[in-house]
Amino acid sequence: MRPSAAAALLAGVAAAALLAHHVLSAGVLAAALLAVCLRAGRRARPYLYGTLVSSGFVFLLSPLLQSTGWHVLWSGPTIPVLGPLDVTTEELQLAALNALRLAAVGLAFAAYALLLDHDRLLAAATARRSVLAAVLATRLVPTLERDARGLVEALRGRGLAPAGLRGHAALLSPLLAGSLERGLSLAEAMEARGFGRPGRTRVPAPPWGALDAAALAGAVVAVVVGAMWL
Amino acid sequence: MALALVDGLTFSYPDAPPALEDVSLQVEPGEVVLLLGASGSGKSTLLRALAGLVPWFHGGRFAGRVEVAGLDTRSARPADLAGSVATVFQDPEDQVVLAGVAAEVAFGLENLGVAPAAILPRAHAALAAVGIEALAERPTTELSGGELQRVCLASALALDPELLLLDEPTSQLDPAAAQAFLERALGGRAAVVLSEQRPATALRYADRVVFLERGRILLDASRDDALEWLAAERPAWTEPSNTLSLAETCRSETMLVSSIHGDVQGNRVVPHEPSNTLSLDRKGPRETVCRVERVRFAYDGRPVLDGASLELRRGEVVALTGPNGSGKTTLAKLAAGLLEPQAGHVERAGRAAFLLQDPGRYLVRERALDEVALGHGRERARHVLAEVGLDGVETRHPRDLSSGERERLALATVLVTDPDLLVLDEPTRGVDPERKAELAALLRAQAHRRATLVVTHDRLFAAAVADREVSLGETREPVLA
pTM for this structure? Predict the structure, then answer.
């Protein structure tokens, strides 16, 4: 399957999850995307961790920030600005739905980042500069993970191990500075290799096949079904 | 007519003193010019000027004229020069754009507007020319540093440039791989301007040598004349025998037993010459600081070490050598406790410190002094900064330091811990011969305090610094012709 067709299918499934109104529907779509991601093996770990943490925060915090529903499960104090802290069944359902929607989007991105051939995606793109920027941004996650491992390893080599949230948070600034330096070096190398010259060509792309057409149709169907029935 | 002409070039990066001053140079078609000079002498800046990246990409103050293939770099952008000039930068990881090897090599061809049907054949031909056609379908993220460097060379050669610029391209390669790399890079029709910190091999291929110091050309001469000048004026750049004699001196002072034992399948552990020579240390046996016994380690099921052993004693400096992929860094990390063995065991007495290859990993604070003082007192940090020759940079931001200063800052961050076991992974990568000699002298001067393990490709440095050499035999990387 062409990566552009696969990317369209992933985007369609993620859109269907965003449009879904039932926890079960969003859950099934998220589970399907999780199964796809797991094909990447250990490389999927940082993406799964990030998706789990962000979805978990949405699930835990949003009931406390909303005031909806009438089946109260727990009543807490009233906080200025936020109002009464309570949790209702309806808030939990909505929180679960939003968390699963976010998880589906995160997992679709993970599948795109881990399993698609970005070079072929780039070759097929009409807006090559934009797609190249997206492809390079996609590589940021594993690069940052590798840089973070390197920083921690260097600190351990000095007899210092970052401890706790604060210790790890202190690594964010050097990580950002390092990724900016790397970005500059990459931009310099790209310019030296003629990036931005007019009249560029591209490696011929293989013709569209039946599987590619089916994937595109599946993407459209997923969006329609998600909007109308899920 | 000269292929490249540099006429009275003076250049300063923004808010910095001149990196190049009144530099004039010509490069003839097909000529191989070797750039030598200490870290920070302006070699990389001169290469960037020839590629048009200075001043277009970096900004700064530019005076004089640079013409390459008839294009004046004051009006022609680097992308305009790309058809005539190709550059291989120092760090391959910072120049790889795409995820697949073949696509990466094709990237430049696409930018130049090569006919679509010709792009992949030319990319595969370039990969074959550097001996890595078998890697064409591999992801670039899975390649070793040495393999990536060859991908970068293939990407440059695929463009069929008239002028090839190589900025320390062999810094991550073992001597055999470095020689093979240079043979491939210099064997074509292109003129080559090459910057190197390990000049012995490159000197064999150079037609001319240019020596830079503090941004000025000190020497521009034919190879034979340059060898004479270097021997008289800068002997560290030419005479490996001098360095070797230092090694002989070291060995005579501390006569040691080659103590590595291994029964490793496909990863033989080979004692250094003279093989298993037993000599007695005049001061008697010393305390063992680290003992690695029959360790096994694999990454994702790919075995790297199997049954390797190593013993390190206080007062000795051991060089751990071997080809790319033979497991040197893994064994060193096991010794320092950064990795845990999957079989066998490691015993350590006292503190261990490990210096990684990349000095960028040691830049986590806003001031150089704070960086070194992290977890230690400032007074001690000042003392160690002075030991590595960095007194005066205490208040500067570590990222504002030059690459050579960063290397020394990283060294200071591990020396400040006063470890019982000091492990240095490729500490001479990108370091000029004079600075290497200083580093060797520093390690020798402090050798009595600890056991020191130096992982290195640099045989001359190993000979200069080590009491004994432990060589890991066979590579686990695919052997590429």
Answer: 0.77
